[in-house]
Write a structure and sequence with these properties.
about 425 residues; alpha/beta; four-stranded parallel sheet; 13 helices; about 35% helix; binds S-adenosylmethionine; binds iron/sulfur cluster
Length: about 425
Protein backbone atom coordinates (compact mmCIF):
# COMPACT_ATOMS: atom_id res chain seq x y z
CA UNK A 1 0.00 0.00 0.00
CA UNK A 2 2.90 2.35 0.72
CA UNK A 3 4.40 1.61 -2.71
CA UNK A 4 1.02 2.52 -4.24
CA UNK A 5 0.77 5.72 -2.19
CA UNK A 6 4.34 6.69 -3.16
CA UNK A 7 3.50 6.29 -6.85
CA UNK A 8 0.54 8.65 -6.34
CA UNK A 9 2.71 11.17 -4.46
CA UNK A 10 5.19 11.11 -7.36
CA UNK A 11 2.39 11.49 -9.91
CA UNK A 12 0.94 14.45 -8.01
CA UNK A 13 4.34 16.18 -7.75
CA UNK A 14 4.88 15.67 -11.49
CA UNK A 15 1.50 17.32 -12.16
CA UNK A 16 2.76 20.30 -10.16
CA UNK A 17 5.74 20.49 -12.52
CA UNK A 18 8.29 18.90 -10.17
CA UNK A 19 10.60 16.30 -11.68
CA UNK A 20 12.54 13.57 -9.87
CA UNK A 21 15.91 14.90 -8.62
CA UNK A 22 18.98 12.80 -9.49
CA UNK A 23 19.77 12.55 -5.75
CA UNK A 24 18.24 13.68 -2.45
CA UNK A 25 21.10 16.25 -2.15
CA UNK A 26 19.78 18.12 -5.14
CA UNK A 27 16.07 18.04 -4.33
CA UNK A 28 14.15 21.26 -3.63
CA UNK A 29 11.32 19.25 -2.09
CA UNK A 30 11.85 15.98 -0.22
CA UNK A 31 8.80 13.88 0.64
CA UNK A 32 9.13 10.92 3.01
CA UNK A 33 6.33 8.38 2.82
CA UNK A 34 6.62 6.54 6.11
CA UNK A 35 5.66 3.22 7.67
CA UNK A 36 5.27 2.58 11.39
CA UNK A 37 4.23 -1.09 11.47
CA UNK A 38 7.37 -1.89 13.49
CA UNK A 39 9.98 0.18 15.29
CA UNK A 40 12.65 -0.26 12.61
CA UNK A 41 11.11 2.09 10.02
CA UNK A 42 10.75 4.78 12.72
CA UNK A 43 14.49 4.55 13.42
CA UNK A 44 15.35 4.67 9.71
CA UNK A 45 13.23 7.79 9.27
CA UNK A 46 15.09 9.54 12.12
CA UNK A 47 18.40 8.94 10.27
CA UNK A 48 17.00 10.17 6.94
CA UNK A 49 15.54 13.28 8.57
CA UNK A 50 18.91 14.11 10.18
CA UNK A 51 20.53 14.04 6.71
CA UNK A 52 17.71 16.15 5.27
CA UNK A 53 18.11 18.67 8.14
CA UNK A 54 21.83 19.05 7.32
CA UNK A 55 20.98 19.85 3.69
CA UNK A 56 18.30 22.28 4.78
CA UNK A 57 20.82 24.19 6.91
CA UNK A 58 22.83 24.82 3.72
CA UNK A 59 19.71 25.95 1.86
CA UNK A 60 16.75 26.86 4.11
CA UNK A 61 14.42 27.20 1.09
CA UNK A 62 14.34 23.40 0.77
CA UNK A 63 11.04 21.87 1.80
CA UNK A 64 10.76 18.67 3.87
CA UNK A 65 7.43 16.84 3.95
CA UNK A 66 6.63 13.72 5.97
CA UNK A 67 3.56 11.66 5.12
CA UNK A 68 2.24 8.18 5.84
CA UNK A 69 1.57 6.14 8.93
CA UNK A 70 4.44 7.35 11.12
CA UNK A 71 3.37 10.96 10.53
CA UNK A 72 -0.21 10.04 11.46
CA UNK A 73 0.88 8.22 14.63
CA UNK A 74 2.94 11.24 15.70
CA UNK A 75 0.59 13.96 14.47
CA UNK A 76 0.59 15.76 17.84
CA UNK A 77 4.35 15.83 18.17
CA UNK A 78 5.94 15.58 14.74
CA UNK A 79 6.95 19.28 14.41
CA UNK A 80 8.31 19.21 17.96
CA UNK A 81 10.27 15.99 17.40
CA UNK A 82 11.60 17.11 14.03
CA UNK A 83 11.65 20.92 13.69
CA UNK A 84 13.17 20.58 10.21
CA UNK A 85 9.84 19.18 8.92
CA UNK A 86 7.75 21.75 7.07
CA UNK A 87 4.67 19.75 6.10
CA UNK A 88 3.22 16.59 7.64
CA UNK A 89 0.19 14.55 6.58
CA UNK A 90 -1.41 11.17 7.18
CA UNK A 91 -1.97 8.40 4.61
CA UNK A 92 -5.57 9.53 4.02
CA UNK A 93 -4.78 13.10 2.98
CA UNK A 94 -2.23 12.70 0.18
CA UNK A 95 -4.66 14.31 -2.26
CA UNK A 96 -4.07 17.70 -0.55
CA UNK A 97 -0.28 17.58 -0.62
CA UNK A 98 -0.11 20.03 -3.55
CA UNK A 99 -1.89 22.76 -1.58
CA UNK A 100 0.39 22.34 1.40
CA UNK A 101 3.50 22.47 -0.78
CA UNK A 102 2.35 25.85 -2.02
CA UNK A 103 0.96 24.96 -5.46
CA UNK A 104 -0.76 27.97 -7.03
CA UNK A 105 1.64 30.38 -5.30
CA UNK A 106 0.01 30.35 -1.84
CA UNK A 107 3.28 29.45 -0.15
CA UNK A 108 4.19 26.34 1.83
CA UNK A 109 1.75 25.61 4.68
CA UNK A 110 4.53 25.18 7.25
CA UNK A 111 3.90 23.55 10.61
CA UNK A 112 0.35 22.46 9.86
CA UNK A 113 -0.74 18.85 10.01
CA UNK A 114 -2.86 17.37 7.19
CA UNK A 115 -6.61 16.90 7.31
CA UNK A 116 -8.77 14.51 9.30
CA UNK A 117 -11.03 13.64 6.39
CA UNK A 118 -9.76 10.79 4.20
CA UNK A 119 -9.76 10.43 0.41
CA UNK A 120 -8.60 7.61 -1.85
CA UNK A 121 -5.06 8.31 -3.10
CA UNK A 122 -6.17 6.10 -6.02
CA UNK A 123 -7.93 9.13 -7.50
CA UNK A 124 -4.55 10.85 -8.10
CA UNK A 125 -2.45 10.40 -11.26
CA UNK A 126 0.11 7.65 -10.69
CA UNK A 127 3.77 7.52 -11.63
CA UNK A 128 4.10 3.79 -12.29
CA UNK A 129 7.44 2.03 -12.08
CA UNK A 130 6.42 -0.45 -14.79
CA UNK A 131 4.04 0.26 -17.64
CA UNK A 132 2.57 -3.28 -17.64
CA UNK A 133 1.94 -3.76 -13.89
CA UNK A 134 -0.20 -1.63 -11.59
CA UNK A 135 -1.47 -1.42 -8.02
CA UNK A 136 -5.19 -0.78 -7.66
CA UNK A 137 -6.51 0.41 -4.32
CA UNK A 138 -9.87 -1.16 -3.44
CA UNK A 139 -10.26 -0.05 0.16
CA UNK A 140 -8.61 1.95 2.89
CA UNK A 141 -8.34 1.30 6.63
CA UNK A 142 -9.14 -1.83 8.60
CA UNK A 143 -11.95 -2.90 10.96
CA UNK A 144 -9.98 -5.75 12.54
CA UNK A 145 -8.60 -5.41 16.02
CA UNK A 146 -5.42 -7.51 15.90
CA UNK A 147 -3.91 -6.69 19.26
CA UNK A 148 -0.35 -6.10 17.97
CA UNK A 149 -1.25 -3.90 15.02
CA UNK A 150 -1.13 -0.12 14.69
CA UNK A 151 -2.76 -0.02 11.22
CA UNK A 152 -6.37 0.59 12.35
CA UNK A 153 -5.33 3.57 14.46
CA UNK A 154 -3.28 5.21 11.69
CA UNK A 155 -5.33 4.28 8.62
CA UNK A 156 -8.77 4.41 10.26
CA UNK A 157 -11.91 2.30 9.74
CA UNK A 158 -12.35 0.33 6.58
CA UNK A 159 -13.87 2.21 3.66
CA UNK A 160 -14.40 0.54 0.29
CA UNK A 161 -13.97 2.30 -3.02
CA UNK A 162 -16.95 2.12 -5.40
CA UNK A 163 -16.90 -0.99 -7.57
CA UNK A 164 -17.51 1.06 -10.73
CA UNK A 165 -14.53 3.32 -9.92
CA UNK A 166 -12.24 0.33 -9.42
CA UNK A 167 -13.36 -1.49 -12.56
CA UNK A 168 -13.17 1.81 -14.50
CA UNK A 169 -9.55 2.19 -13.37
CA UNK A 170 -8.72 -1.41 -14.30
CA UNK A 171 -10.24 -0.84 -17.77
CA UNK A 172 -8.20 2.36 -18.27
CA UNK A 173 -5.05 0.52 -17.17
CA UNK A 174 -5.72 -2.30 -19.63
CA UNK A 175 -6.10 0.23 -22.47
CA UNK A 176 -2.74 1.74 -21.45
CA UNK A 177 -1.05 -1.66 -21.79
CA UNK A 178 -1.18 -2.94 -18.20
CA UNK A 179 -1.38 -6.74 -18.10
CA UNK A 180 -1.17 -7.42 -14.35
CA UNK A 181 -3.04 -5.65 -11.56
CA UNK A 182 -2.68 -6.16 -7.81
CA UNK A 183 -5.79 -5.23 -5.84
CA UNK A 184 -4.83 -3.59 -2.56
CA UNK A 185 -6.50 -3.29 0.81
CA UNK A 186 -5.44 -3.77 4.42
CA UNK A 187 -8.06 -6.49 4.59
CA UNK A 188 -8.71 -6.86 0.89
CA UNK A 189 -11.20 -9.74 1.01
CA UNK A 190 -13.58 -7.93 3.35
CA UNK A 191 -14.04 -5.45 0.47
CA UNK A 192 -17.50 -4.10 -0.19
CA UNK A 193 -19.46 -4.87 2.98
CA UNK A 194 -20.02 -1.15 3.55
CA UNK A 195 -21.33 -0.82 -0.03
CA UNK A 196 -23.53 -3.92 -0.21
CA UNK A 197 -21.17 -5.81 -2.51
CA UNK A 198 -18.27 -8.21 -1.91
CA UNK A 199 -14.77 -9.23 -2.93
CA UNK A 200 -15.94 -12.16 -5.09
CA UNK A 201 -18.04 -9.77 -7.21
CA UNK A 202 -15.05 -7.45 -7.54
CA UNK A 203 -12.73 -10.27 -8.65
CA UNK A 204 -15.23 -11.41 -11.28
CA UNK A 205 -15.75 -7.86 -12.56
CA UNK A 206 -11.97 -7.30 -12.89
CA UNK A 207 -11.56 -10.69 -14.58
CA UNK A 208 -14.07 -9.61 -17.22
CA UNK A 209 -11.89 -6.64 -18.26
CA UNK A 210 -10.28 -7.29 -21.67
CA UNK A 211 -6.49 -7.24 -21.74
CA UNK A 212 -5.88 -7.97 -18.04
CA UNK A 213 -4.03 -11.28 -17.96
CA UNK A 214 -3.16 -11.50 -14.28
CA UNK A 215 -4.98 -10.40 -11.14
CA UNK A 216 -3.36 -10.55 -7.73
CA UNK A 217 -4.59 -9.22 -4.39
CA UNK A 218 -3.07 -8.41 -1.01
CA UNK A 219 -3.50 -8.70 1.93
CA UNK A 220 -6.44 -10.98 2.65
CA UNK A 221 -7.49 -12.08 6.14
CA UNK A 222 -8.20 -15.81 6.69
CA UNK A 223 -11.54 -14.95 8.37
CA UNK A 224 -12.90 -13.43 5.13
CA UNK A 225 -12.26 -16.32 2.73
CA UNK A 226 -15.95 -17.11 2.25
CA UNK A 227 -16.97 -19.77 -0.32
CA UNK A 228 -17.85 -17.22 -3.08
CA UNK A 229 -14.33 -15.72 -2.82
CA UNK A 230 -12.69 -19.14 -3.13
CA UNK A 231 -14.95 -19.98 -6.08
CA UNK A 232 -14.10 -16.70 -7.80
CA UNK A 233 -10.35 -17.32 -7.43
CA UNK A 234 -10.78 -20.83 -8.81
CA UNK A 235 -13.00 -19.85 -11.73
CA UNK A 236 -11.57 -16.51 -12.92
CA UNK A 237 -8.91 -17.15 -15.53
CA UNK A 238 -6.88 -14.05 -14.81
CA UNK A 239 -6.81 -14.52 -11.02
CA UNK A 240 -3.41 -16.05 -10.25
CA UNK A 241 -2.90 -19.30 -8.33
CA UNK A 242 -1.28 -17.49 -5.43
CA UNK A 243 -2.79 -16.59 -2.08
CA UNK A 244 -1.03 -14.73 0.70
CA UNK A 245 -2.57 -16.20 3.83
CA UNK A 246 -1.17 -14.53 6.97
CA UNK A 247 -0.86 -17.09 9.75
CA UNK A 248 0.80 -14.87 12.41
CA UNK A 249 1.04 -17.81 14.85
CA UNK A 250 0.40 -21.55 14.78
CA UNK A 251 -0.75 -21.59 18.42
CA UNK A 252 -4.51 -21.16 18.99
CA UNK A 253 -3.76 -19.66 22.42
CA UNK A 254 -1.56 -16.94 20.89
CA UNK A 255 -3.98 -16.40 18.00
CA UNK A 256 -6.67 -15.68 20.58
CA UNK A 257 -4.44 -13.16 22.36
CA UNK A 258 -3.70 -11.63 18.96
CA UNK A 259 -7.50 -11.37 18.34
CA UNK A 260 -7.12 -13.02 14.94
CA UNK A 261 -10.55 -14.72 15.28
CA UNK A 262 -9.42 -18.12 13.91
CA UNK A 263 -7.77 -21.12 15.51
CA UNK A 264 -4.95 -23.27 14.18
CA UNK A 265 -7.52 -25.91 13.17
CA UNK A 266 -9.72 -23.45 11.30
CA UNK A 267 -6.72 -22.04 9.50
CA UNK A 268 -5.56 -25.50 8.42
CA UNK A 269 -9.08 -26.40 7.26
CA UNK A 270 -9.09 -23.23 5.14
CA UNK A 271 -5.77 -24.24 3.57
CA UNK A 272 -7.36 -27.57 2.66
CA UNK A 273 -10.40 -25.87 1.11
CA UNK A 274 -8.24 -23.48 -0.90
CA UNK A 275 -5.98 -26.25 -2.13
CA UNK A 276 -8.78 -28.53 -3.19
CA UNK A 277 -10.59 -25.72 -5.04
CA UNK A 278 -7.52 -24.15 -6.70
CA UNK A 279 -5.14 -26.66 -8.29
CA UNK A 280 -1.43 -25.86 -8.09
CA UNK A 281 -2.01 -23.08 -5.56
CA UNK A 282 1.04 -21.27 -4.11
CA UNK A 283 0.67 -20.06 -0.52
CA UNK A 284 2.57 -17.23 1.16
CA UNK A 285 2.26 -16.06 4.73
CA UNK A 286 3.19 -13.55 7.46
CA UNK A 287 4.40 -14.82 10.83
CA UNK A 288 5.21 -12.92 14.02
CA UNK A 289 7.63 -14.43 16.55
CA UNK A 290 7.91 -13.40 20.18
CA UNK A 291 4.35 -12.13 20.74
CA UNK A 292 3.90 -11.45 24.49
CA UNK A 293 3.44 -14.71 26.41
CA UNK A 294 4.66 -16.93 23.54
CA UNK A 295 6.13 -20.07 25.11
CA UNK A 296 8.50 -22.53 23.50
CA UNK A 297 5.48 -24.81 23.02
CA UNK A 298 3.51 -22.05 21.26
CA UNK A 299 6.49 -21.35 19.04
CA UNK A 300 6.83 -25.03 18.18
CA UNK A 301 3.17 -25.03 17.15
CA UNK A 302 4.06 -22.31 14.62
CA UNK A 303 6.94 -24.43 13.27
CA UNK A 304 4.57 -27.37 12.94
CA UNK A 305 2.06 -25.38 10.91
CA UNK A 306 4.83 -24.09 8.62
CA UNK A 307 5.91 -27.65 7.98
CA UNK A 308 2.37 -28.94 7.57
CA UNK A 309 1.21 -26.23 5.15
CA UNK A 310 4.49 -26.07 3.21
CA UNK A 311 4.50 -22.35 2.35
CA UNK A 312 6.02 -21.24 -0.94
CA UNK A 313 7.14 -17.98 0.70
CA UNK A 314 6.97 -16.34 4.12
CA UNK A 315 7.49 -12.88 5.59
CA UNK A 316 8.72 -13.31 9.14
CA UNK A 317 8.66 -10.54 11.75
CA UNK A 318 10.03 -10.16 15.25
CA UNK A 319 7.18 -8.81 17.39
CA UNK A 320 7.62 -5.07 17.88
CA UNK A 321 5.49 -3.36 20.56
CA UNK A 322 3.61 -0.37 19.10
CA UNK A 323 2.50 2.43 21.39
CA UNK A 324 -1.25 2.43 22.00
CA UNK A 325 -1.87 -1.16 20.85
CA UNK A 326 -3.35 -3.71 23.23
CA UNK A 327 -0.40 -6.11 23.03
CA UNK A 328 2.18 -3.46 23.91
CA UNK A 329 0.84 -3.32 27.46
CA UNK A 330 0.51 -7.10 27.97
CA UNK A 331 2.71 -8.61 30.68
CA UNK A 332 5.22 -11.24 29.71
CA UNK A 333 7.01 -9.44 26.90
CA UNK A 334 9.56 -11.87 25.40
CA UNK A 335 13.27 -11.08 25.89
CA UNK A 336 15.03 -9.87 22.74
CA UNK A 337 17.52 -12.78 22.75
CA UNK A 338 14.68 -15.34 22.77
CA UNK A 339 12.92 -13.57 19.90
CA UNK A 340 16.08 -13.59 17.81
CA UNK A 341 16.81 -17.24 18.56
CA UNK A 342 13.25 -18.23 17.56
CA UNK A 343 13.44 -16.07 14.45
CA UNK A 344 16.59 -17.86 13.30
CA UNK A 345 14.91 -21.25 13.71
CA UNK A 346 11.81 -20.06 11.89
CA UNK A 347 13.75 -18.58 8.97
CA UNK A 348 15.78 -21.77 8.62
CA UNK A 349 12.56 -23.77 8.40
CA UNK A 350 10.65 -21.42 6.06
CA UNK A 351 13.64 -21.43 3.68
CA UNK A 352 13.93 -25.19 3.75
CA UNK A 353 10.21 -25.63 3.09
CA UNK A 354 10.19 -23.01 0.29
CA UNK A 355 13.24 -24.63 -1.32
CA UNK A 356 11.44 -27.98 -1.38
CA UNK A 357 8.32 -26.38 -2.90
CA UNK A 358 10.37 -24.59 -5.57
CA UNK A 359 12.32 -27.77 -6.35
CA UNK A 360 8.98 -29.38 -7.34
CA UNK A 361 8.79 -26.90 -10.24
CA UNK A 362 11.98 -28.19 -11.87
CA UNK A 363 11.21 -29.81 -15.22
CA UNK A 364 7.92 -27.91 -15.63
CA UNK A 365 7.14 -25.08 -18.00
CA UNK A 366 5.85 -21.92 -16.32
CA UNK A 367 4.24 -18.85 -17.86
CA UNK A 368 6.49 -15.90 -16.95
CA UNK A 369 5.67 -12.19 -17.14
CA UNK A 370 8.98 -10.57 -18.12
CA UNK A 371 10.01 -7.69 -15.84
CA UNK A 372 13.50 -6.84 -17.16
CA UNK A 373 17.11 -7.97 -16.81
CA UNK A 374 18.02 -10.20 -13.88
CA UNK A 375 19.39 -8.29 -10.88
CA UNK A 376 22.16 -10.80 -10.22
CA UNK A 377 23.20 -11.46 -13.85
CA UNK A 378 22.25 -8.91 -16.52
CA UNK A 379 22.81 -11.53 -19.23
CA UNK A 380 19.63 -13.21 -17.96
CA UNK A 381 16.03 -11.98 -17.94
CA UNK A 382 13.87 -11.77 -14.83
CA UNK A 383 10.15 -12.31 -14.46
CA UNK A 384 7.43 -13.85 -12.31
CA UNK A 385 5.31 -16.95 -12.60
CA UNK A 386 1.57 -16.88 -11.96
CA UNK A 387 2.43 -18.45 -8.60
CA UNK A 388 4.48 -15.29 -7.89
CA UNK A 389 7.94 -16.85 -7.90
CA UNK A 390 10.81 -14.88 -9.41
CA UNK A 391 12.49 -16.64 -12.36
CA UNK A 392 15.88 -15.75 -13.83
CA UNK A 393 16.14 -17.20 -17.30
CA UNK A 394 17.95 -17.37 -20.58
CA UNK A 395 15.62 -15.79 -23.06
CA UNK A 396 14.84 -13.19 -25.65
CA UNK A 397 11.76 -11.15 -24.75
CA UNK A 398 10.73 -7.60 -23.87
CA UNK A 399 9.44 -6.44 -20.48
CA UNK A 400 5.69 -6.96 -20.31
CA UNK A 401 5.68 -10.08 -22.52
CA UNK A 402 4.31 -13.42 -21.28
CA UNK A 403 6.66 -16.25 -22.23
CA UNK A 404 6.90 -19.98 -21.43
CA UNK A 405 10.02 -20.86 -19.44
CA UNK A 406 11.29 -24.36 -18.73
CA UNK A 407 12.46 -24.54 -15.09
CA UNK A 408 15.89 -26.09 -14.58
CA UNK A 409 16.87 -25.34 -10.97
CA UNK A 410 15.53 -23.73 -7.79
CA UNK A 411 16.61 -21.97 -4.59
CA UNK A 412 14.30 -21.04 -1.70
CA UNK A 413 13.42 -17.71 -3.35
CA UNK A 414 14.05 -18.01 -7.10
CA UNK A 415 13.80 -20.35 -10.06
CA UNK A 416 16.14 -20.58 -13.00
CA UNK A 417 15.31 -21.70 -16.53
CA UNK A 418 15.33 -21.23 -20.28
CA UNK A 419 12.64 -19.68 -22.46
CA UNK A 420 10.77 -22.38 -24.31
CA UNK A 421 11.46 -21.41 -27.88
CA UNK A 422 15.14 -21.44 -26.94
CA UNK A 423 15.05 -24.90 -25.38
CA UNK A 424 16.70 -27.37 -27.79
CA UNK A 425 14.09 -29.79 -29.16
N1 LIG B 1 -3.45 -6.24 6.68
C1 LIG B 1 -2.48 -7.21 6.43
C2 LIG B 1 -2.77 -8.48 7.24
O1 LIG B 1 -3.62 -8.51 8.08
O2 LIG B 1 -2.11 -9.46 6.96
C3 LIG B 1 -1.08 -6.67 6.61
C4 LIG B 1 -0.80 -5.90 7.82
S1 LIG B 1 0.85 -5.50 8.14
C5 LIG B 1 1.18 -4.15 7.13
C6 LIG B 1 1.85 -6.77 7.53
C7 LIG B 1 2.34 -7.70 8.58
O3 LIG B 1 3.12 -7.03 9.54
C8 LIG B 1 1.28 -8.39 9.42
O4 LIG B 1 0.68 -9.43 8.74
C9 LIG B 1 2.07 -8.84 10.60
O5 LIG B 1 2.64 -10.12 10.40
C10 LIG B 1 3.19 -7.82 10.69
N2 LIG B 1 3.02 -6.96 11.87
C11 LIG B 1 2.00 -6.14 12.15
N3 LIG B 1 2.18 -5.54 13.35
C12 LIG B 1 3.36 -6.03 13.84
C13 LIG B 1 4.09 -5.81 15.05
N4 LIG B 1 3.63 -4.99 15.99
N5 LIG B 1 5.26 -6.46 15.22
C14 LIG B 1 5.72 -7.31 14.26
N6 LIG B 1 5.07 -7.55 13.11
C15 LIG B 1 3.91 -6.92 12.90
FE1 LIG C 1 -3.44 -5.04 11.16
FE2 LIG C 1 -4.01 -6.70 9.14
FE3 LIG C 1 -4.99 -7.17 11.61
FE4 LIG C 1 -5.94 -5.11 10.15
S1 LIG C 1 -6.13 -7.32 9.69
S2 LIG C 1 -5.41 -5.05 12.32
S3 LIG C 1 -4.06 -4.44 9.11
S4 LIG C 1 -2.81 -7.21 10.94
Amino acid sequence: MNAHDSERIKGLLEELGLGEAPSADEADVVVFNTCTIREKPDTKLAAHLAEAAARKREDPARVIAVGGCYAEAQRERIFELYPQVDVAFGPGSITHLGEWLGAGGVGVARGRFGLDERAFAAELPPHRERRFQAWVQVSMGCNSVCSYCIVPSVRGREKSRRLGDIVGEVGRLAREGVREVTLLGQNVNSYGRDLGTDFATLLRACDAVDGIERIRFTSPHPKDFRPPVIAAIAECEAVCEHVHLPLQSGSSRILKAMRRTYTRERYLALVERLRSAIPDLALGTDIIVGFPGETEEDFRATLEVVEEVGYDSAFTFVYSPRAGTEAASLPDQIPHGTKIERMERLVELTQRVAQARNAERVGRTEEVLVEGPSRSDPALLRGRTRRNTTVNFVGDAAPGELVPVRIESATSTTLRGTQHALVAA
